[in-house]
Amino acid sequence: MVEFSDRDIVKGLKKGDMSSFQQLFDTKYSLFYAFIKGMIKNAWLAEDITQNIFMKVWIHREKLNPNKSLHNYLYVLAKNEVRDHFKLKSNLNHQEIEDDDKSFVEDFEGSIDAEVMTKQVAAIVLQMPEQRQRIYLMSREEMMSNNEIAEELNLSVRTIERHIFLALQDIRKSLPAFYLFLFAIFNS
């Protein structure tokens, strides 16, 4: 197979040349697959996302600029796809938590064990640093998304995610084994 420069590949892509697309795919797929897999730690999803970025290149080939780096364009597509994946996953997890919380309340309403666990979690939350406590309560009680909390508190989403992670870690460390099991089921 003849090696083409990025510029030649882009020119071929803009014309709809499948051999240019094949050249791009053959030279860049493995690199971007490894990059994406390293970020999301899931081979199946990495393959899916990598295929999506190449599909997007083909779909939007007329917009490609032969004077700009094709590698950088692929990198930006990959980064955006991974970000979108994590954003969707976060939104789904938030919805699952909301659904789990409702289910938990319905299943264990009036149960002494649920009441005891709720009191224990509340006591643990009260011992957390003020910022972490506030973020945890906004997330779990007010059901605010990480983005909404970040915006309201003027913090980064990453900071919010870290505080929630640490809050859950504090709770998991402090709950007795039985309640830890219940907590894990309803907050995973």
UniProtKB/TrEMBL annotation:
UniProt superkingdom: Bacteria
RNA polymerase sigma factor 70 region 4 type domain: residues covered: 120-170
Record's keyword terms, sorted: Sigma factor, Transcription, Transcription regulation
GO BP terms: DNA-templated transcription initiation
Gene Ontology MF annotations: DNA binding; sigma factor activity
Pfam families cross-referenced by the UniProt entry: Sigma70_r2, Sigma70_r4_2
Domain RNA polymerase sigma-70 region stretches: 25-87
Gene3D superfamilies: 1.10.1740.10, Winged helix-like DNA-binding domain superfamily/Winged helix DNA-binding domain (1.10.10.10)
UniProt KW Ribosomal protein keyword: no
PANTHER family, A to Z: RNA POLYMERASE ECF-TYPE SIGMA FACTO, RNA POLYMERASE SIGMA-70 FACTOR ECF SUBFAMILY
Sequence similarity: Belongs to the sigma-70 factor family. ECF subfamily.
Protein name: RNA polymerase sigma-70 factor
Species name: Labilibaculum filiforme
